[in-house]
Design brief:
alpha/beta, Fructose-1,6-Bisphosphatase, Chain A, domain 1, D-Maltodextrin-Binding Protein, domain 2, 2 domains, five-stranded mixed β-sheet, 7 helices, 12 strands, globular
């Protein structure tokens, strides 16, 4: 089984487990989210250690180990991306199984169990045509001020959505054109989505255009841009202007 096949199989199976836990109806809300996280994490951790014992491993729900820093192959997983949405019985949550090769998000799969979809790096599909007026994805509960300002500059329509994986895959699926996040995330929030988006020909970078690097000692990722290639330069230029204005106002 190839790495991409393994990522897809694990993401799909974990998603099915999560749906079963939720369908039981025995728990709900935050308790459901915690139970789902724990269940999916245990499955993914045990499966990866069985299938790829020599690789490094990083999970949101597992204690981190510096051992991964010496590995060129590191699996980076998020058992439930969008725990709140999962607990609220929404569809905008995801399972992330990504593989970073020498710090680059290279292989992976993102499952959207609520939509019965798995998007993967080894089966890229043609991204549908863009929208006449660009659609920019932001957090449905706390949209970042920078993203709102860039949307205003581009004349973009703001679309609120839950998890990072759901947002990134909405661009892959043609439901939106731009996903700009400036509120900070961690490596497991974006590794698999970035790998899948790049495999589908989308632009992926930091908000200043610099490359995204994974398997670092500091897991914090301050910002992220996933968008259709034709919008990348305009979004990055808008961010440069905004950053410059913010700097001048504070000095």
């Amino acid at each position: 089984m190839t790495d991409a096949e393994l990522a897809a199989a694990l993401a799909e199976a974990a998603g099915q487990l999560l749906l079963q836990v939720r369908a039981s109806g025995l728990i709900g809300g935050k308790t459901l989210g915690r139970a789902g996280d724990a269940t999916a994490n245990q499955f993914l951790i045990h499966a990866l250690r069985e299938q790829r014992p020599d690789d490094g491993l990083l999970s949101e729900e597992e204690k981190d180990s510096a051992d991964r820093l010496a590995r060129s192959r590191v699996w980076i997983i998020d058992p439930v991306d969008g725990t709140r949405e999962y607990g609220e019985h929404r569809t905008d949550w995801a399972v992330h199984v990504g593989l970073a090769l020498n710090g680059v998000a290279s292989v992976g799969a993102v499952a959207l169990p609520g939509l019965d979809l798995v998007l993967r790096t080894d089966r890229p599909q043609r991204v549908p045509p863009g929208n006449t007026r660009p659609r920019m994805l932001v957090s449905r509960t706390r949209p970042a001020a920078e993203a709102v300002a860039v949307a205003d500059a581009l004349g973009a329509e703001l679309v609120g959505m839950g998890s990072a994986g759901a947002k990134a895959m909405a661009v892959v699926r043609g439901e939106a054109d731009i996903y700009l996040h400036t509120g900070g995330q961690f490596e497991w929030d974006s590794c698999a989505p970035v790998a899948v988006a790049a495999a589908h020909g989308l632009h992926v970078s930091r908000a200043d255009g610099s490359p995204l690097v994974y398997n670092r000692p500091d897991l914090y990722v301050p910002d992220l841009l996933i968008c259709r290639p034709e919008w990348a330069n305009r979004v990055l230029e808008s961010m440069r202007v905004l950053t410059s204005q913010t700097y001048e106002a504070s000095s």
